[in-house]
Amino acid sequence: MKEYSVAVVGIGAVGTEMLKVLHERGFPASSIRVFARSARDEEIAGRTYAVEAASVEAFEGVDIALFAGTEGAKGASQQYGWAAVERGAVVIDNGDDFRMDPRVPLVIPEVNPDHLRNHQGFVANPNCSTIQMVAAVAPLHRVAGIRRIVAASYQAVSGTGRAAIAELQAQVDAIHDGRDVACEVYPHQIAFNCLPHIGSLKDEMPGYTSEELKMRRETRKILDAPDIAVTATCVRVPVFNGHAEAINVQFERPISAQQAREILGQAHGVEVMDDMASARYPTQLHGSGKDPVFVGRIRDDTSAPNCLDLWCVGDNIRKGAALNAVQIAEKMIEMGLL
């Protein structure tokens, strides 16, 4: 099997997970290099990496560049992405700088791998909340055609990065010890609280945040369905890792909850957990550290025609970022595109 020179750009939560996933899955890498803002040694999962300071020249000889978009590296692909492509690398970017760029396929390998054929050396990972929602609804869309999605997300602090994880832990400890709570990462206390505020406000849709607009735009691009109506409310919750979403979907054609269970039961990358009588449904604790998107609480919504409600859970750092990027590279190899 051909082997590839791989570079991981960024060594925060996502970059660290990318390195773990590459080794866990036995990715055919002849070498794995790590680029970040500064050079130093880092130990990750029992391996020591000589981290190199990122530069345009560093991408010479790199076949695949995985941009993690963490450790302050948001925008790193803006600085180095296309330069890496010019030097022969295929860039797979977890950041949001180029997701809606018409030159750049936005890909979930289980959903739209055919879009990879149009790549120009640069492929984007969707947003973590979009990945798990679309993975859950795309198999149903292929059968009944989605008309409208109403989603509410319950997103873990790991989506913000290591500083947010530390802040949640520090606030829990402070409350336990009777000390004052410090808020630096988020505008309000996140411990034992929920914040309906992820991302920045966007003038084009007053009152909506960037995270909520990502779910709309990215869903349409991934599914090649510009007319699907999507609205979302994205909420940060005091959970360390794993996102959950409550999703209401209206379809063009009738589809029952039982049909949906059967369809999703056969879908790649999806695991159905749906037995309320036995309290069997996915939770963020269950999904953390695992690869699939878990779906449960599938039920008929009788308040409108052709509607279903469902609940889905996914590891936002793993399937929502690192794993999806590595799977894109694996799919490109499988398709003969690398």
Outline the structure in words.
With 338 residues, the chain is α/β, with parallel strands linked by helices. It has two domains: 4-125 and 321-334, NAD(P)-binding Rossmann-like Domain (Rossmann fold), CATH 3.40.50; 130-316, Dihydrodipicolinate Reductase, domain 2, CATH 3.30.360. The chain contains eight helices and 13 strands. It has helices at residues 13-24, 76-86, 128-144, 162-177, 210-222, 257-265, 284-287, 318-334, and strands at residues 4-9, 29-36, 40-44, 47-53, 64-67, 90-93, 122-124, 146-155, 229-236, 243-251, 270-272, 293-301, 307-314. The strands form two sheets. A seven-stranded mixed sheet has the order 3-4-2-1-5-6-7, sandwiched between helices. Strand 3 and strand 4 form a beta hairpin.
How would you briefly describe this protein structure?
The chain has eight helices and 13 strands. The chain has 338 residues and is of the alpha/beta class.
- Any low-confidence stretches, pLDDT <50, length ≥5? none
Question: What is the gyration radius calculated from CA atoms?
Answer: 20 Å
Which fold name is given in CATH as the topology of the largest domain?
Answer: Dihydrodipicolinate Reductase, domain 2
Helical segment count: 8
Assembly annotation: single chain
The side-by-side strand order for the widest beta sheet comes to 3-4-2-1-5-6-7
Helix-residue proportion: 25-40%
